[in-house]
Amino acid sequence: MKDELRAVVYAAKKGHDCAYPVLISRLKGLIYQVHHQKISARVSPDDWYSDALEVLLRCIKRYNMERNRAKFSTYYASALQNRATDLIRSHYTAKNQFERALYSQDQAELEGLEKGTDTYNPEQISLLKEALSSVSFAQTEDFCKVVRQLVGAQSYQGTEINRRSFDQMQYRFKRAIQAVI
């Protein structure tokens, strides 16, 4: 088993910066091949390229030069495949499924209404903030927590009791927004 990249990987492990462009140029085809085969529908090529470079750095650090079982390119290919699988799995997390279900529910409820707003319009933002602040339940900590969870600023960790409260607050939040729009 002759590994053409062995010397370049060894140089990269020793800290030679000139090794990285050589590795990247030799492995660029593999990077885009995995992108095309597994995640081209979910991740842009630029984002995938940056992820692939992070994986490359980790692979260089972890690759065992003395007891290598495979070529470096094979080792790197399996690491890229694993990273792509992780990205696909993260797409199907509970949070993403919840957001997709929420969107489909909203779509059925708001049929015929304009769903988007001009968020760059400071006047509309000000009106929305004013309307939400005038609603009495908007001052509670639970409401603020639910809003942070809905916009993704805080993760949802809940029990069945919290889930009911979350659903109630979510309903009130939607009603308040519909009243403003």
Q: Quaternary state, please?
A: single chain
Overall tally of domains: 2
Give the termini distance in whole angstroms: 66 Å
Extended strand count: 0
H/E topology pattern: HHHHHHHH
Q: Could you estimate the helical fraction of the residues in percent?
A: over 70%
Largest sheet: none
Rg estimate, integer Å: 24 Å
Report the mean per-residue pLDDT as an integer: 77
List the uncertain runs: 112-117
Assign the structural class, choosing from mainly alpha, mainly beta, alpha/beta, alpha+beta, or little secondary structure: mainly alpha
Shape: elongated
Description:
This protein has eight helices and no strands. The protein has 181 residues and is mainly α. Helix 2 packs across helix 4, helix 3 (45-62) packs across helix 4 and helix 7 packs across helix 8. The longest helix is centred in the N-terminal third of the chain and has 21 residues, at 19-39. It is elongated.
